[in-house]
Design brief:
It is a single chain. This protein has about 350 residues and is α/β, with parallel strands linked by helices. The protein folds into two domains: about 240 residues, Aspartate Aminotransferase, domain 2, CATH 3.40.640; about 90 residues, Aspartate Aminotransferase, domain 1. It contains 13 helices and eleven strands. The chain has a seven-stranded mixed beta sheet with strand order 1-7-6-5-4-2-3, sandwiched between helices. The longest helix has 21 residues. The protein is globular and about 60 Å long.
């Protein structure tokens, strides 16, 4: 299936600049397991974007970035509090519970964003041995619903977490899309906003494969190198993960890719709004659109342009734009949808 669709930004290929970078560094011998010059360069670039105290570890997948990243600062008797829509709850196949033994507690939210008021009910039982101990609040930026936290919203959650002795984790699988939406550098809504542990995504925004776990406060990565190894995420030829981020940051490729996918989502949303019987359910703030489409029409369109059902009861679907989505793709999709309606 070569046709560009709207199922997931994971379905897009790697950006040509990423492939060019991989070819560039594919010469000679380099020290394995992260001892190479490219990994060192990539780490320094992360410090430039996140602050000098950032400690960065590269891993293969987003699940690993979330789960083993948190495992370095949590124990099996701890609780992770997050949105019911969060990947940690819905898309990690129970990995937090299996690999960390932690209890994941969730709150329902209309737009994927949690608030202090929503999570307060779970922040209790401190020092009581019969009660799992709250330790981590996790937010996703941009959220699984395509919405984006403001700096003020993040700071409020971070301040609350720290006042209770908790840490704030951010799942940044689509961090670049959030940065473009906010018009802000990464540091301003991560490190400076009080985030402690960051999963920095790249695969959904043009990388072939690779994510980074970023510890934004000194000392949080104590012993993490052993955790990564036991978590089977220590790449022997790590330069092929880390060097992708060199190209990603060079000339703001990350911004180019995310700006394009966000812009395409806005174009698609505008065209969908013009179709009778179609209803967009969430603010379109990044590269995802959540839309109610009559079931029969959606099923027919999905035969040519596959996309995912989000809520079968409401006939709500998720449409994702990517770094390589074109206006022609959107026009053909909208034309087919109109025909089936």
């Amino acid at each position: 299936m070569n046709k560009r669709g709207f199922a997931s930004d994971n379905n897009a290929g790697a950006h040509p600049e990423i492939l060019k970078e991989l070819a560039r560094i594919n010469v000679g011998h380099e020290i394995g397991y992260g001892g190479d010059r490219y990994t060192a360069e990539a780490r320094e670039l992360f410090k430039q974007h996140l602050g000098p105290d950032a400690e960065v570890y590269f891993v293969f997948t987003g699940t690993a970035a979330n789960v083993i990243g948190i495992s370095s600062v949590a124990r099996s008797w701890n609780t992770i509090v997050t949105a019911s829509t969060a990947h940690l709850n819905t898309d990690e196949c129970g990995a937090p519970e299996k690999l960390m033994g932690c209890k994941v507690l969730t709150v329902d939210t209309p737009d994927g964003k949690i608030t202090v008021e929503m999570i307060e009910k779970h922040i209790q039982g401190f020092g009581f041995e019969h009660h799992s101990q709250p330790k981590i609040i996790s937010i996703t930026q941009s959220t699984e619903m395509g919405t984006v936290y403001t700096v003020k919203e993040i700071k409020k959650i971070a301040d609350y977490a720290h006042s209770k002795g908790l840490l704030l984790h951010m799942d940044g699988a689509r961090l670049a899309n959030a940065a473009v939406s906010l018009g802000l550098p990464f540091r301003e809504f991560t490190t400076d906003a009080g985030v402690d542990v960051l999963s920095f995504g790249g695969t959904k925004n043009g990388l072939m494969a690779g994510e980074a776990i970023c510890f934004l406060k000194p000392g949080l990565d104590s012993d993490f190198k052993y955790i990564r190894k036991q978590g089977m995420q220590l790449a022997s030829k790590m330069r092929f993960i880390s060097a992708q981020f060199i190209a990603y940051f060079r000339n703001d490729l990350w911004k180019e890719c995310a700006s394009h996918s966000n812009a395409m989502a806005a174009v698609l949303a505008d065209k969908l709004k013009e179709i009778k019987g179609i209803h967009i359910t969430q603010k379109v703030q990044s590269n995802g659109i959540f839309v109610i489409i009559p079931h029969d029409a959606a099923e027919k369109v999905m035969k040519q342009y596959f996309f995912y059902s989000w809520d079968e009861i409401k006939s709500e679907y998720r449409l994702m734009c990517s770094w390589d989505t074109t206006e022609e793709d959107i026009d053909e999709f909208v034309k087919l949808l109109k025909k089936e309606l």
